């Protein structure tokens, strides 16, 4: 028998399924899709990560999936499906069945920043999805190689030209760096990669001068003395990098963060979504998951589906205004 939180699940499922149950009783219909939803899950639930292995999104997804297997009562195998800041994997998710047996990580930047950079008539929008659970809020940090001649942010912004890596076109990594360099009047060239791990690797190999990436993707190298942090793109200094100034302290109004969450297609059954949500709720309360967040410099983002969607909508408007004011063209990196 699968080890599931039956009491909590039963209460939530009963509330979510009440209209369906009433309609079924009136029509004398039983079984079918409703019965399948009531038994969910009866097999493994595929958890997609639409990014390369090794990045922040991949790390948190694997930690969450591992912690959720016991409360869900089934395995959660993780598969990487990288491309286009998550759009490739999420489009494939929408093309499949909305039965809850395939879910995916998603990120704020895909919905709030990528539309500023990529004209895609078939772009996914947040209304296509149901947010099963919210996960993390992560700050971006600007780093250079430990052997770089640029010791401080002022040094870097005084350079005649800069090549900088980003985690991809239309990402918070790209937006934060470009807002800074354009605001400072620096001749800077964007070198996009498909994820934080590859962007940081390029900097470690001194193929570029700098990179803006999440703390999870850079702190191990910062602590090892391989990279040097010179600015953070948050309103206040990071408690993990208290000696590193914010871009705002240097006079540049650049505040960009990344939020991560788990989605299923919007048509997923209410009861199925409830079972998944409760399993992830239990997983996030586990000591192992909490320790993972602490070890990887991630803050929790704990809001419901509606609040999360409202945040994404507000962020999209805010970032669009910032990009317009700065005259940015994210698609061509200028």
Uncertain regions: pLDDT < 50 for 5+ in a row? 1-31
The CATH superfamily name of the largest domain is Bordetella uptake gene, domain 1
Approximate shape:
globular
- Proportion of helical residues: 40-55%
N→C terminal distance:
57 Å
The string of secondary-structure elements, in order, is: HHEHEHEHHEHEHEHEHEEHHEH
Mean pLDDT: 88
CATH architecture of the largest domain: 3-Layer(aba) Sandwich
Query: Main β-sheet: number of strands, strand sense, barrel status?
Result: 10 strands, mixed
- Strand-pairing-aware structural class: alpha/beta
Q: In terms of quaternary structure, what is this?
A: single chain
Tally of contiguous helical segments: 13
Proportion of β residues?
15-25%
> How many DSSP-defined strands?
10
The third-level CATH topology of the largest domain is D-Maltodextrin-Binding Protein, domain 2
Q: Please, how many domains?
A: 2
What value does the Rg take, in angstroms? 21 Å
Keywords: Receptor, Signal
Protein name: Tripartite-type tricarboxylate transporter, receptor component TctC
Family: Belongs to the UPF0065 (bug) family.
Organism: Glycomyces sambucus
Description:
This protein has 334 residues and is an alpha/beta fold. It has two domains: 194 residues, 3-Layer(aba) Sandwich (D-Maltodextrin-Binding Protein, domain 2), CATH 3.40.190.150; 118 residues, 3-Layer(aba) Sandwich (D-Maltodextrin-Binding Protein, domain 2). The chain has 13 helices and ten strands. Strands 1, 2, 3, 4, 5, 6, 7, 8, 9 and 10 form a ten-stranded mixed β-sheet that branches. β5, α8 and β6 form a beta-alpha-beta unit. α8 runs parallel beside α13. The chain is globular. The N terminus is likely disordered. It holds the Pfam family TctC. Keywords: Receptor, Signal. This is Tripartite-type tricarboxylate transporter, receptor component TctC. Belongs to the UPF0065 (bug) family.
């Amino acid at each position: 028998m699968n080890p599931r939180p039956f009491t909590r699940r039963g209460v939530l499922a009963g509330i979510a399924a009440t209209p369906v149950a009433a309609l079924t009783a009136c029509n004398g219909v039983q079984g079918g899709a409703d019965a399948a939803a009531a038994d969910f899950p009866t097999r493994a639930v595929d958890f997609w990560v639409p990014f390369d292995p090794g990045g922040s999104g991949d790390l948190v997804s694997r930690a969450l999936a591992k912690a959720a297997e016991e409360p869900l009562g089934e395995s959660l195998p993780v598969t990487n499906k990288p491309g286009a800041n998550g759009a490739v994997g999420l489009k494939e998710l929408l093309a499949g069945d909305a039965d809850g047996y395939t879910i995916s990580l998603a990120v704020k930047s895909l919905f709030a920043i990528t539309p500023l950079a990529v004209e895609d008539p078939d772009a996914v929008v947040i209304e296509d999805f149901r947010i099963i659970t919210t996960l993390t809020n992560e700050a971006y940090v600007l780093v250079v190689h430990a052997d770089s001649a640029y010791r401080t942010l002022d040094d870097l912004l005084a350079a005649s030209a800069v090549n900088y890596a980003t985690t991809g076109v239309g990402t918070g990594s790209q937006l934060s760096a470009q807002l800074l360099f354009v605001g400072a009047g620096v001749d800077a060239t964007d070198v996009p990669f498909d994820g934080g791990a590859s962007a940081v690797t390029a900097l470690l190999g001194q193929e570029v001068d700098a990179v803006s990436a999440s703390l999870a993707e850079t702190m191990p190298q910062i602590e090892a003395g391989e990279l040097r942090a010179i600015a953070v793109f948050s309103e206040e200094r990071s408690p993990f990098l208290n000696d590193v100034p914010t871009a705002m302290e240097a006079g540049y109004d650049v505040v960009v963060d990344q939020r991560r969450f788990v989605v299923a297609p919007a048509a997923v059954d209410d009861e199925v979504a409830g079972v998944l949500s409760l399993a992830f709720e239990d997983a996030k309360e586990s000591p192992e998951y909490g320790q993972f967040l602490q070890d990887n410099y991630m803050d929790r983002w704990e809001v419901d589906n509606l609040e999360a969607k409202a945040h994404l909508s507000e962020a999209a408007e805010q970032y669009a205004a910032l990009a317009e004011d700065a005259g940015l063209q994210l698609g061509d990196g200028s």
